[in-house]
Amino acid sequence: MNRSINWSDLPIESIKRGFTENRQFYECLICGREIEKGMIYRDAANLYEAQRFMELHITRAHGSVFEYLVSLDKKITGLSEHQCKLMRCFYDQVPDAVIQQQLSIGSASTIRNHRFALKEKERQAKILMTMMELIRENENAPVKYLAPHSTATMVDDRYKITPEEYDKILKKYFPEGLDGRLTTFYIKEKCKLAVLRHIATRFEAERKYTEKEVDTILKLVFDDHTTIRRYLIEYGFMDRVTDCTSYWLCQNEQQS
Description:
This protein has 256 residues and is mainly alpha-helical. 48% of the residues lie in helices and 9% in strands.
């Protein structure tokens, strides 16, 4: 019975030599035997350091790492029984003419095709391993949040919004599309920030607006446009002169 091993966690070099190591032991991948580092082991009249003794153990107890790997279940190797037989022949450097006879293969070109197919699998496996490694690295990377607008009045946990959360919020509160109307503004503060960030994009950078022009734009967004206007100011998305005769997008903040 094959041991339960998480092969994806093992470096290729460890799989090739048939054992793993930690600070204290070498461990045989095939049977699980542990050999303590720093010890000297006697075998008949010979003395071996720990790593060499583990290599000797694998050769004597298991024959070869290759034979162990090629005998693993198809679910692990992805190889058919016929492909495994070919792999054994290739490993043992059996001449193609002999392979033809042993495996009842019709022609030498068929063997060449099998070699090509296995090399193609190898290339595909390298690409797949690379992509999976990149996926793992991305999963372990710090969570990426949208950068707060530069004129935010007070940055706190409300601003921890991922791009995915941002898109989800907008789809929820702008069900008719991003150019449509807002369904409600009586929502959590984080959602308000996301909504205001989007509403700010309806204004042009470097343009001054009268209060009437601002209200005209906001009325298309939500009936309670004065509340939206007030929050745009309070959260630092827009600014205005004291007498409210002129409004503008803060420091050209045009969020996307």
